[in-house]
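Record type: ASSEMBLY
Status: queued
Input:
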Amino acid sequence: MRDVRLLTEAFDPSALVGAFTTANPGLGGVCTFVGEVRSDTDVEALELSHYAPLTLPSMGELADNAFARFDLMGLLMIHRVGQMHPGDPIVCVSAAARHRRAAIDAVDFCMDHLKAAAWFWKREKRDGEWNWIEPRSDDYADLARWA
Amino acid sequence: MRDVRLLTEAFDPSALVGAFTTANPGLGGVCTFVGEVRSDTDVEALELSHYAPLTLPSMGELADNAFARFDLMGLLMIHRVGQMHPGDPIVCVSAAARHRRAAIDAVDFCMDHLKAAAWFWKREKRDGEWNWIEPRSDDYADLARWA
Amino acid sequence: MAVTVIFLGPLRDLAESESIEVAGPLNWEGLLAAVGPEVSDQLQQERVNVACAGEVLSDKTALNAEDGDEVALLPPVSGG
Amino acid sequence: MAVTVIFLGPLRDLAESESIEVAGPLNWEGLLAAVGPEVSDQLQQERVNVACAGEVLSDKTALNAEDGDEVALLPPVSGG
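Status: finished
Output:
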């Protein structure tokens, strides 16, 4: 079961992951990562923009690569675009597999690529001013682990 | 938020993870692994036994080690004991952190230790006969990554 | 019909525009001339990519856009 | 009161019992003698641990259980 989506509205990760788990009978394990807009900072809002002709197709390729690389039964990959507020889910990746290593590694792999190699641009609003965010050097280092 | 439990009855991971996520405001990401009794094999039932004076205390130590090793905001660690059937959740580990790497690595770390270094013994029933399961060599190799 | 040049992410602020229309055909030199000096400086950095008609170019200096094509200027990404 | 010896996991099948009572004090040699030859063979393997009074012994051959203590024989584990 493969479910890759770009959403413009708020979503409920637990509902999506629940349906995804049910849709993969026989699994040994499911690993899920949910990223949210942090609320412990002075960020008032976060905006993610994308480029429609590339972004969703590249997420599909990323899913294909994860299926090719790991022994998966299913992969769910959801990414928000648009304006979000502290506490809102931004991204949800869930992988179902017979063995836990494939599920955990696939989530790790997809998150590293979504962070630093997918067609998204992020800016955040502090004190009423918008600033663009570049990937942290940690994000590039994480990505390099899979090369 | 730290929640470590040994359960003798069936549980709903999504309800626990939902409550856990809510209990950690300000998080950047939550990683969750749920292990279930596989249903694609001819296993009729699975039984996990434990040794009460050691098992829960050792899970608590494992949680302490995860907090010491990773920059976590919260950790949920739930393990079933008793008899289970295909599709039943066995284990659920969820980690909340400011950054995804800590959350993902903490789940990976806890699962490797629960699999091969916690006081559980597993047997499965096939064709009406119970057989004890030892960790796979993969499980020992996974564990050795953290040494 | 013309070539539409789209500015993504922080390039949008530099260009003070979401997109511009340029008469085709449009090559690399024409693109640099069309986008203004600030975006042109960015474009010449390795970390900025260019897509034409929905395909990221492996060599952006080989750009060859026809009227009707969309050319996207893609600065370093930050998702998740 | 005596020492209670608990058999965990597959050792339970070998011992054909969940536990036995042995008069204290109980040392390593006494334990090996008390559990029967099959469990005794297993016990002498490095991968089998022994706990006494809720503590896993770093050197199981230094066992020194008193009446009232619980001694647990812990074969290789398999959780999750």
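Annotation: The mean pLDDT of chain D is 95.
Annotation: Chain D has one domain: 3-74.
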